[in-house]
Each structure stands twice: as structure tokens, then as C-alpha cells.
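Researcher: Can you fold this with magnesium ion in place?
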Amino acid sequence: MDAMKQVTVLGATGSIGQSTLDVIARHPSSFSVYALTGNTRVAEMFSCCMQFNPKIAVMADASAAEDLEKKLRNAGAQTQVQSGVEAMKAVASHPDVDYVMAAIVGAAGLQPALAAAEAGKRVLLANKEALVMTGSLFMEAVARSGAVLLPIDSEHNAIFQCMPSSYRSGDQATGIKKILLTASGGPFRTLSEQEMAVVTPAQACKHPNWSMGRKISVDSASLMNKGLELIEACWLFNTTPAQIEVVVHPQSIIHSMVEYVDGSVLAQLGSPDMRTPIAYGLGWPERMASGVSSLDLLKIGMLNFEAPDRSRFPCLALAEESFTAGGTSCAILNAANEVAVEAFLNGNLGFNKIPVIIEETLSRMVSREAHSIELVLEDDGAARQLATSLIKKY
Ligand code: NAD
Ligand code: MG
């Protein structure tokens, strides 16, 4: 690799953020950390700063930033501490920055990720909610600025790897018949509707194959994660839900596939470890070591496939319908889901009521043309308010 690349990691204290720093630490002569961002967890951010010595650390929360500042000064560290969303946008778009890992969870990640896209950075996108909310504006920003958008979500990274080597995110793919988007099926794949009504947050967060943040773990359990990923794939690969088939593959060894018009099906396989797509994004178009263990197919023995059960997992169809409806529908879907998942995690909503809240929020709101980010954020806020009031009924 040529010159040292300066990297900003948005959401550095999270699961993807930590895996990103793990990969970066393996290549000290290729990458240096320009900035790290976090939300409230000061102790984690402090140890990241001590290890990677970023120029800037941003906490979303102002009092967390104050605490971090004190700890870093006491330790004699040079890192400057800032707080708030404007500071996150600034470290995502600073001229010194080459690569931005967008790994904040949820709508909170949208503005910094978009700032990186607008500034023409190499954007490693894990924050799928950003594309779900503002897919057309986001892809327009990428096209306008010349940003390089590399998907980090394992499925989308697999699809990207199965595309012709000249393919860039947002291009109309040629010679392709369909995309096979794989899903693990989550921890409740085999549960009945009655059993799913009484599951706990701890059960929902215990994913069979992946270790992830709590929000995406619940999304995986409800299959909303696959719904969000379907929308994400439509934007990234310039296609429609009709060209995407969701295939449940419980072992999570094949991370997704592309079927070409000649009948060839290309797949990307690997151990379920996010450091593979992260290293792909950092190294692209070259390959670099990630620390991921070799795939042992003899030990795995079997790969299974089944159709998703759309009636036990209504979130998948809600996402498909929202993409087809267009406008701000997907932002409304995403906002209602974030509120419902949070309520479930706090013990205030049953797991099986998550799709009920989303459906009711969607049906009571009127989707609008998504002309601007401000308008999308308005509908995001309105959907959150409505979903919060609906939850009180349950
Ligand atoms: P996580 O909960 O482990 O980490 C979230 C990060 O976002 C943390 O650094 C946190 O400080 C930050 N954050 C949270 N709220 C914030 C706010 N209001 N303002 C600023 N920062 C805030 O989540 P994760 O599992 O690392 O997932 C991150 C993103 O990557 C999500 O969009 C998820 O869907 C996506 N993703 C994750 C995985 C995975 O394996 N974990 C796989 C594919 C995609
Ligand atoms: Mg995924």
C-alpha cells in the first residue's frame, strides 16, 4: 500500500468500531487514526485514545466529553476532546482524513456519514440506517463528490465482492439476474408465534453466529435487520426488491451471492467475523490480513438453506413495502423500529409488538418526497413521537 492513510472511526467504542481498530492495529505502517467518536462510554474511549493517539476524540454527550478531557489531561495525552454532532461531521469531512468508518448505530449516524460522503472520502459504511433513511440523497452525494462507498455490512460486502471488479456502489450492474441476500434467521428462527411473544432481551441479544451491538441483535431476531439490508442493497446496487431473494442460511458461512444471466452463481464465504469485510474496505482494491481464522469447511460439514417465514417475521414485508412506497417511508419505518427496539430492550414492549408498532406508525403517517435531509429528519422525529405514544397503549 502507498502512503499512510488517515482514518476517522465513527462509533469507535462499538462492536464494529472495536473490530475496525483491531484491524488497524495490525497495520501500523498503513493507517493512522485521525479521530475517534463515541457516545457516553468514557472509560472505553479513554483506552482507545491511549492506544491509538488520535488527533481528536468526539463524544456525542457533552458531560462525557468533559470527563474524557480530564482523564486524558491527567494521563498526559495529546488528543483534543470535542462533543456534539457538528464535531462528528467535522472529523468525518476534515481535509486531512482519507477513510471514514461509519459505525454509529441508528439514525444518529446519518449526519456524520453523509458529511463523509459529501466530502468525497472513502466511506466504509456499516451504519445501514443512514442509507435506509436517505438512500437517494446519500447515493447522490456519493456520485457528486466522487466518494468511494464500500459496504461493510457482511452481506453487502459479499455482494460487492461478487460483482465485476470494475463495479462501483450505485452503478447499474450488468449481466446480473438477481442478488441472493442471505440471512441467519436469528435466534428465534425455529420458535412458534406463542414462544416469540414471551422472549426476553437477553435471549434476543444472543445471536447464534455473530457478536454485535444490542440494537442490531434485536433487528436480527425480528428479521428487521434483513428488511433494512434489503433496502440498503437496493440503494447500493441500484436495484429493486424484485431482483433480491432473501435466503435463510443458518450457518452464516455464505455471506451472500450474485446470480448472473448465464446461470453462474458467485458467493463469498468466510468465518462469521466482521474483521473480514472491514479489512476488505480498508485494503480495497488490495487484500490485507484481518486476523480472522481460516474457514474450516470440513468442520462445518453442511450448509443449509430455507425460505424466510414472512408471517412469523412481519418486519421483512414491512421493509419491502416501505421501499416500494418510497419517499420518507423508509425513514418512518426505521424510526419506529428504533423506538420499538429500545422499548423492548428496556422491558416496556413485547418482542412480538415490535412489528405492530412499526405497522401502525407507517399507516398513520403520510410519506413525503425525500427532498432534503431536513425533511427526512422531520419525519424521523414525528415517527419517533408517534411510535412512543403508541407504545404506551401496550
Ligand atoms: P454498537 O451498539 O456496538 O456500537 C454503536 C456505536 O455508536 C458506539 O460507538 C456508540 O458510542 C455510538 N453511538 C450510539 N449512539 C450514538 C449517538 N446518539 N451519537 C453518537 N454515537 C452514538 O453497534 P454495532 O453493532 O457496532 O453496530 C454499528 C452499526 O453497524 C449499526 O448500524 C449496525 O447495524 C451496523 N452493523 C453491525 C454489525 C455487527 O456485527 N456489529 C454488522 C453489520 C452492520
Ligand atoms: Mg448484515
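Model: Folded with magnesium ion in place. The chain has a mean pLDDT of 97.
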